[in-house]
Every structure is written in C-alpha cells, then in structure tokens.
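Q: Hi! First time doing this. I have a protein sequence and I read that you can turn it into a structure. Is that right? Here it is:
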Amino acid sequence: MPTDLADLAVHTWVKDSFQPYLGRKYTWILDQLRPLIRNAIAHLDPTGVSLVADRFEDVDRCERALPVVKYLARDMLRNELAMDSDTACLKVG
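A: Yes, that's right. Below is the predicted 3D structure, encoded as structure tokens:
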C-alpha cells in the first residue's frame, strides 16, 4: 500500500478509509479485514461478535473497509494480468 494518501488513485471521499493501512503490506491488511468482512458478515461466525445491519457502527465499519478491499483486489488483479501478459509474450516470442 502506498505510504501517502496522495499516491492513491481513489475518490477523495474514501481516502480516510485508507489511513490505517498506509505503508502496510497487503497480507497484513487482509489479515486485519478478514474477521470483519469474511467471518462476521459472510458466515455470521457464531464464535465471534457478529455484525448487525441495523447498527450504525457495524454498517460504518463495513463501508469503511469496502473501498480498501476493492483497491486491493483491483491492484492484485492488475498485477496478475500484467504477469500473464508478460508470460504470454515470452511463450509467443
């Protein structure tokens, strides 16, 4: 993740969501967000604290995490596609 908010190509209104993750590795960020996104929402983990859609705090936490997850996914896909195209060029050439 970039170390400066100015280096992020995201909307201004979501930049605050990135503040805790600046300068961190993607694996660290994903480890921090996994309980929030995967366990608490997708699986309603009964061993953990489940989020409630009617609570503003829970909705706010999820809304702040989504732009970060979207950024990571797009960047990882962009890198993967670039690697695939480099490999394809090597095979053809």
